[in-house]
Amino acid sequence: MMRIRTMPTKTRVKNSILRSGAVTHDHTRTSRKQGIDNRRIYYRLNQCWRSADIIQIGDEIRSMSMRTVFILFFAMMIPAISSADPISSVRWKNRVIVLDFPKGSGSELSALETQIRRTKAEIKDRDLIILHVGEKRSTGYSRKLTEEERKAVRNRLGMGTKSTSPRMVLIGKDGGVKATQTNSFDLTKFYRLIDTMPMRQKEMRER
Questions:
Q1: Any idea what DSSP says for residue 135?
Q2: pTM over 0.70, yes/no
Q3: 3-state helix, strand, coil in the chain (%, to 5)
Q4: To 10 degrees, the CA torsion angle through 140, 142, 147, 152?
Q5: Which of the listed CATH numbers 3.90.1590.10, 3.40.30.10, 3.40.50.1370, 3.30.450.40 matches domain 87-206?
Q6: Which of 31, 123, 132, 168 has a beta carbon 3.0–4.6 Å from 181's, enabling a disulfide?
Q7: What is the mean pLDDT of each run of 10 residues along the chain (207 residues)?
């Protein structure tokens, strides 16, 4: 918390001095020596005031420095946190299809891979990337995830630590889940859903 000292105004201090009789403007009763003393008092008053200002400014600078340290610390931590989640790293750039196929679901995954190969143009046109986070690893259409990235995606989507049943999740460019398919997998349904989204319609008008 910023520490600010409450300082009296110059006018209030000077008036207080005048009322106390330390400084007088009654020149008929003030000697030349008193005039010199008055100037010394005002000079000293201004010196003290400047010193107080410097102390207050110094306190504010120290307080701001601590806040800056914390801000910079968290700013440096954000990229490290985001880099572990491949979905966050492509937000507003790509839509994502996440596949979660456990062991023993080879036939379903094989059929889906056939759809992927046949619709590469549709995938590219819709800025889609495909990530597999299940136990059954697939190749040829998505980059290989590190174990840290795989866990980050599963945690983000609430999939737990282990695959239980096949599923396919569509994530929009805003990072939100748009649809989920289980048991039966049809990429064209995802394509049609994407084409109804306002962001996708804007993309089609601009391309």
A1: S
A2: no
A3: 55, 10, 35
A4: -160
A5: 3.40.30.10
A6: 168
A7: 51 53 48 59 56 52 55 47 78 96 88 94 96 70 82 93 91 98 95 97 93
